[in-house]
Design brief:
Length: 168
């Protein structure tokens, strides 16, 4: 692991995104019921992503364990594509990019797992860091990250802790 002992703790946050291409038939089922035989897809994927973010250091070798202050995921269905965005924040000595990316990856895998009985054409793609802030390197935003949702866009500035839950 990289030695971060001399670094001071600062407020750090990151947004990540990814997509799951479902195909029209699977998207129609989700649009109609939101669920498959396994249960509600978006709720389950959201919880899976949050749990995964909390376990990032156990999954990624040499990744520092972080005391996360918040992890949030938003899943939206646009046509036959599930768009996933995550947000993670903490006060720490190292960034939360890996936690935000892990949340998206596991949420996408959960969507796949819950929908695979409806078709095998599902494709996970474009898992990427959208934006980060804090620490020595400061603020960074992917040039193509401008199309974020209103909920995650509010988190683009130094994060404010959200209260209350909004359903994806």
């Amino acid at each position: 692991m990289v030695n971060v002992a001399a670094k001071g703790a600062t407020q750090r946050w990151a947004r990540a995104g990814g997509t799951v291409q479902l195909g029209p038939a699977i998207a129609a089922v989700l649009r109609q019921t939101g669920a498959t035989a396994k249960g509600h897809v978006f709720d389950t994927a959201r919880i899976a992503g949050i749990l995964a973010a909390k376990q990032t250091a156990a999954l990624i070798p040499l990744c520092h364990p972080l005391a996360l202050d918040v992890v949030d995921l938003e899943l939206t269905l646009a046509g036959d594509v599930v768009k996933i965005e995550s947000y993670a924040a903490c006060d720490g000595k190292t960034g939360v990019e890996m936690e935000a990316l892990t949340a998206v990856a596991v949420a996408a895998l959960t969507v796949y797992d819950m929908c695979k009985s409806l078709g095998k054409e599902i494709e996970i793609s474009s898992i990427r860091l959208l934006e980060k802030g804090g620490g020595r390197s400061g603020h960074w935003k992917r040039p193509s990250a401008g199309g974020c949702s209103r909920r995650t866009a509010q988190k683009s500035a130094p994060p404010q802790m959200r209260t209350g839950k909004k359903s994806p």
